[in-house]
Amino acid sequence: EAGVVQSPRYKIIEKKQPVAFWCNPISGHNTLYWYLQNLGQGPELLIRYENEEAVDDSQLPKDRFSAERLKGVDSTLKIQPAELGDSAVYLCASSPGTSGYQETQYFGPGTRLLVL
Amino acid sequence: GQQVMQIPQYQHVQEGEDFTTYCNSSTTLSNIQWYKQRPGGHPVFLIQLVKSGEVKKQKRLTFQFGEAKKNSSLHITATQTTDVGTYFCATDSWGKLQFGAGTQVVVTP
Fold first, then answer.
1. Is B100 on the interface with A (CB under 8 A)?
2. Of B11, B84, B70, B6, nearest to A41 (Cα)?
3. How close does chain B come to A112, measured CA to CA in Å?
4. CB atoms within 10 A of CB B25
5. Is B1 touching A (CB cutoff 8 A)?
């Protein structure tokens, strides 16, 4: 079974430029998560989707971040414009159920973003 | 929301030794999940604990959930170089995982 796929794996951009990350969850998984992981810290949830609905986006900085999961399968996370402080690893995860509660989350390899 | 604190932040272990890392909360937790992240890798699920006092073992790893459900521990016996990485505990609050800062484990041969 293929795992969570993310692309690109690495991205270097200049500040104020836009950037987009793509995630394809494990086939059949209804819940999709985007996390931000800063160096030396645990992942922090940005947004959680149940199918195509964003059910928790309270931690997403909506002035510059946006996300979509139009058909309830793959998802895109966008930053526009990027700031220096956005340099981090962006992790996508998925879980099979519709609530995510007490479910195992399967993480993708992440996208390492460096903003110069 | 629920927050978990992990100690120690760093753990240097001689190969073959045992060590324990702890995850603490000031509030009662509904569950605890443990993840391992290898250097340069992504978090990988290890175990979930739900019941008060629950103990689960995976080969050399022993996970425990406290009786009051406010703390958890991960004990590794006979540490190997393959145990290198950061171990995170996380609590699930209605589908939202809140991670601790992790314990970074370095193993000296």
1. yes
2. B6
3. 10
4. 21
5. no
Question: Which of B2, B42, B96 is the mutation pick for testing A, counting most A CBs within 10 A?
Answer: B42
CA B48 – CA B65 distance, rounded (Å): 10
Task: Write out pLDDT tens, residues B4-53.
Answer: 999 999 999 999 999 999 999 999 999 999 999 999 999 999 999 999 99
3-state helix, strand, coil in chain A (%, to 5): 5, 45, 50
Q: What is the dihedral of CA A54, A86, A21, A62, to 10 degrees?
A: 30
Determine the distance in angstroms separating the CA of A67 from the nearest CA of chain B, rounded to an integer.
17
State pLDDT tens for residues A54-89. Answer: 999 999 999 999 999 988 899 999 999 999 999 999
- Report yes or no: A28 and A41 within 8 Å, Cβ to Cβ: no
Paired residues of A11 in beta bridges:
A113
Amino acid in the structure at residue A13: I
A92, A108 Cβ separation under 8 angstroms? yes
Of B30, B42, B102, the CB nearest to A42: B102
